Amino acid sequence: MSGGVDSSTVAAILARAGHPVVGLTLQLWDQTRLAGKHGIPEAPKAGRCCSLDDVYDARRVAEQLGIPYYVVNQEERFERDVVRPFVDEYLAGRTPIPCSLCNNHLKFDQLLKTARSIGAERIATGHYAVNDYDEARGRWILKRPADLAKDQTYFLFGLTQEQLAHTLFPLGHLTKPEVRSAARTHGLRLAEKPDSQEICFIPGGDYKRFLNAYLEEQGEAVPETSGELVASDGSVIGRHEGIFNFTVGQRKGLGVASPSPLYVLNIDPANHRVTVGADEELATQTLRAHDLNWISIPALTAPMRVKAKIRHRHEPAWATLEPAGADAITATFDVPQRAVTPGQSAVFYEGDEVVGGGWIY
User: Fold this and answer.
1) pLDDT tens digit sequence for 28-47
2) Would you say 265 and 341 are in contact if contact means Cβ atoms under 8 Å apart?
């Protein structure tokens, strides 16, 4: 129970249907931990997930429903498996996606272990997704939900067959307006609560402030990765203060004047070089991904036609997947795609089914 309308409605639906329900909230990050450092606000801004107010809201819902409720402290593991990798990825010139790491390591791994320790058979979450067992294939299948505007399967590509077998997604066949209506029907006071928009440990979405504050707290210096800013033809047009200040597709904050807009095309961590160019130069025909997890198939052994999604708001595009060595694939798009970004996830779909996914490198 995150304290939002979605997970609260799931608890209400299951409890009112007569299921024995226990509410669990993961305590992941102290929202005041870096407050006041490097311009980070003293007071956490509304709209961030997993805040202390969210814990209070979840507890109130559990009391209203008459179900047991516990807060499970996972701050240490969250920092180890989500926050520190996020920092290291940015410092290495890649653009991480912490929500997928959180799902893989905390919400569908540690939470399931915790549930089993108290005698629960399954976990139920407020994610918008569908999972079904396919008898013919002998596999659990993850599918896109009824409300495609709320589709969260992109962040769930890392779920294993074991995790899918013990997870319920009660909202998968509902739209967001229907969920809010159900919340009102069940008398939940947070039926109109806005959705969280920010990453829980990044105040205001300003990851640069967070990096500086976190490294200072850890007693670490920001690595020296300043270097050349170059045009796509290789000519040097300026210098930058560190590769962690950039992400592929970025336009603002490049530190160089140009008569036409420039975008980050490539980050070369080994040489501390950042390449910039015109918007049309961001188009890429292929990508490589590794650390793969397959859901609808046991493994990729031959070329396969899929639709590939390269970031959360990206419209999946037709591509051909091919094996590319141990635990790696190459995806070749029918039409070049804009700003394929190392560190992000590539998730592959066949119709509404999630075939699998991996990490772009």
Assistant:
1) 998 888 988 888 877 555 55
2) no
Region at 308 (left for phi over 0; alpha for psi -120 to 50; beta for the rest): beta
- What is the token pair recorded at 240? 């930058």
Residue 284: CB atoms within 10 A of its CB come to: 16
User: Is 49 assigned a catalytic role?
Assistant: no
> Domain map of the chain by residue range?
5-126+170-205, 224-277, 283-360
Span 94-109, pLDDT tens digits: 999 999 999 988 999 9
What three-state secondary structure class fits 85?
A: helix
**Which one from 49, 50, 99, 200 is the annotated catalytic residue?**
200
Q: Token pair of 161, please?
A: 């067959």
Q: Which helix (H) or strand (E) holds 287?
A: strand 283-294
Q: Give catalytic status of residue 99 as yes or no.
A: no
Catalytic residue among 49, 50, 99, 102: 102
pLDDT at 199: 86
Smallest Cα–Cα separation from 316: which of 174, 144, 199?
A: 144
- Specify the CATH class of 283-360 in words: mainly beta
Around 237, how many Cα atoms within 13 Å sit in the side-chain half-sphere? 17
Q: How many CB atoms lie within 10 A of CB 193?
A: 18
- The superfamily in CATH containing domain 224-277 is Adenine nucleotide alpha hydrolases-like domains (2.30.30.280)
Nearest to 312 by CA among 209, 204, 193, 197: 197
DSSP state of 48: B
**Nearest-CA neighbor of 159 among 83, 117, 105, 199?**
105
pLDDT tens-digit profile of 220-236?
A: 999 999 999 999 999 99
Superfamily of structural domain 5-126+170-205: HUPs (3.40.50.620)
pLDDT at 44: 57
327: CB partners within 8 A, 6+ apart? 290, 291, 292
Express each pLDDT in 246-286 by its tens digit.
Answer: 999 999 999 999 999 999 999 999 999 999 999 999 999 99
Name residue 317's beta-bridge partners.
308
